[in-house]
Amino acid sequence: MKNSYLLPGLIAVLFICNLAPASAQKKLIKKLFSNEADTTRSSSFLALPVLGYSQETGVEFGAVSLYSFYTDRKDTLTRASRLTGVATFTTKSQSNFQLKSDIWAPGNTYHYTSEFRYKNFPFNFYGVGNKTFKANEDRITQKLFRLNAGAEKKFGKITYTGLNVNYDRYRFTDKAEVGVFTTDPFLVDRDGGQVLFLGISQIFDNRNSNTYTTKGTYLKLNYSYAPKLFDDTDFDGGMFKADLRTFKSLSKKAVLGINGIFQTIGDGNTPFYLLPQLGNDEMLRGYYTGRFRDENLLALQAELRLRLNPKIGFVGFAGTGTVYGHNSFRVADLKPSVGAGFRYFFDVEKGLSIRMDYAYGEKRPGEERQKGFYLSLGESF
Q: Where does the chain cross the membrane (predicted)?
């Protein structure tokens, strides 16, 4: 979960520790700073303030939180479940709400996921394709309502089969009216729309942990179909996603992780907001999410994780990826991503961390090198 303004929140946590009663201080400090794992497998909660500023939003303020627990505290094989939430507001009447759940039933026999999101927030649009220009940057206001749910059942030792339903409703406004968003004649459904995907997943998962993996492999294949339900102009088509993650322990403190993803959607007439987007705080760090988007996405990254002690870790990562239209993939279009990061594990037993990453991407002619700083909760994959 990404938020670029968590750093003031870390300072606030230390300030709150000093204001809290002595007994509460002791519990909080032990949870945040002790190197010992909690053998009782108790629940944990972390909430951080959010504070930021930009010309388009004014002052942004709110909170981000993570609650982690076990559905069966006695069974040491049951994975950690998580509830994450974000609520932010701006002085220019913009808002962003998100609540996500990732629940593992006792014995990991079932896995449930859900997401509720409402977003009224601006973003930068650059056009469609693998070679968009910074000069075409167009500030767009987006209103998004999202409701997703999924359930997976375990069959055998490492196999899960699941169903998912995903509903999105989009509305867009371009106040400039002369930018690429308004003038691009090939942009599909620029005013927005709604879509309901119904899907099926097949998962192979033998990881030793779903929060901080040191060995094992995860592969998820998902196909979803969106029928015309609301309007004759709505998107009608399929979407396929593949997500591969594999981990190998190199020593007691070093882990190598490799992650590859592939996404494809549409038949040449796909709404721009459904196109896969390259770059975020999890895959191809260093690229602004949405700078490059097209009907297909292929990306690969490797991450070397060094956990020096139970609380502190460092990582180095490198990756490559691209977006492309149907039948137009070229190796020469692959974009680089390289960077490093710091980890602070606030819950040693569950392997939950505060993640700080800095990454570099490509340098296009006439533009500054693309780069980004990420401050998030949890590992990138």
A: none
